[in-house]
Amino acid sequence: KEVNHPATPLTITRSLRGFDQTRGAFSIVITNHLPEEVDCWYMESVPWIIKPYLSSLKVENIRPLQETSGSSHTQSTSFNVLDIGRVVYHPPKTGDRTSPTLLEIPLTLPSRSVIQLSFEFEKMFLKYTEHPPDAQRGWDLPGGVLTPISTDPSVPSRLPRMYTPPLLADLATPDFSMPYNVILLSGSLLALLFGMTFNMLTRRFVLVPSS
What we know:
disordered N terminus; 12 strands; five-stranded antiparallel β-sheet
């Protein structure tokens, strides 16, 4: 039976939480507008500058979707949304500062509901040579991918794959203007000393007789 919905079947938003330059958290909100459950996978490819904590992965909230008419569909908060046993987690090797972390989360979205996932992370401390030229701008974090799947493996899902917009992470950044200030001060002092020394070595002192 085909049902027309005023909104897209699934919507997803992702945001960063935390205001310091050492730790933070991802907050993912997924809304299911369909009158049926949806199985899906949520994938994150996190750059090496972010170290996620898998132990902090949790479902923070499950609430019913508020309908336009004012009525709501009741949904039990005990619904098993996250299957932690099937989570795929591939961190980079120790000392590898190039490979990203791959995180794949299996989810079962209740019908007409909104779920909120979150997991914490730690921001790496970079060497001064690892910062990009526009270090004050921050680092781009690739968007997450939500892939609906069909309960029957032989039948492809009729729902499209969805992508979240990229985010901007603020990492601890040194003051790159300090080397410039040191060069200016050192150059000024060297020029002053060289000028005084050169002036004393090359100047001829002549005794002028009084008239």
